[in-house]
Design a protein that fits this description.
With 139 residues, the protein is α/β, with parallel strands linked by helices. The chain is built from three helices and five strands. A five-stranded mixed beta sheet has the order 2-3-4-1-5, sandwiched between helices.
Length: 139
């Protein structure tokens, strides 16, 4: 059996790139051109779902380098839809870390995935509340 994590000291090293350093580089430490950051972000991996959601809601597009952010007017800008940030853990993590650094306190990640559990049927809903941290993004 492979030990988790594979590198025993991986959690003792500092990050090479931080959300604070990126925010300072991107816009002097503010958030996305002066918009107040939302409290909640909904990260959507399916482009069609994101397009439908922002087309049927009062949504303000907030330009950002790594993703599309839309503040939902019906929530007074307290909820953002975040989409089009790429595929995989590295891009999702980059966006999520920036959101948390800006002040977002709740992130809901909605997507699809494969599974290695024989008791799960195709199309079954899975609510994930923890994960094993042993991938390339955090190492």
């Amino acid at each position: 059996m492979t030990p988790v994590p594979r590198h025993a000291d991986k959690l003792t090293h500092d990050s090479i790139v931080t959300p604070a350093a990126f925010a300072q580089h991107h816009d002097g430490g503010g958030w996305l051109g002066g918009f107040a950051p939302p409290r909640v972000a909904i990260m959507l991996y399916h482009r069609g779902l994101a397009e439908h959601l922002v087309a049927t809601r009062d949504a303000v597009h907030v330009p950002y380098m790594f993703a599309d952010h839309f503040l939902l007017g019906e929530t007074s800008g307290q909820v953002a839809v975040v989409a089009n940030f790429g595929i995989g853990a590295p891009s999702a993590t980059l966006v999520m870390e920036d959101l948390v650094h800006a002040g977002v306190t709740t992130v809901l990640s909605v997507g699809t995935s494969g599974a290695l559990q024989p008791d799960l049927a195709p199309g079954e809903l899975v609510l994930i509340d923890e994960a094993i941290r042993d991938e390339g993004t955090s190492h």
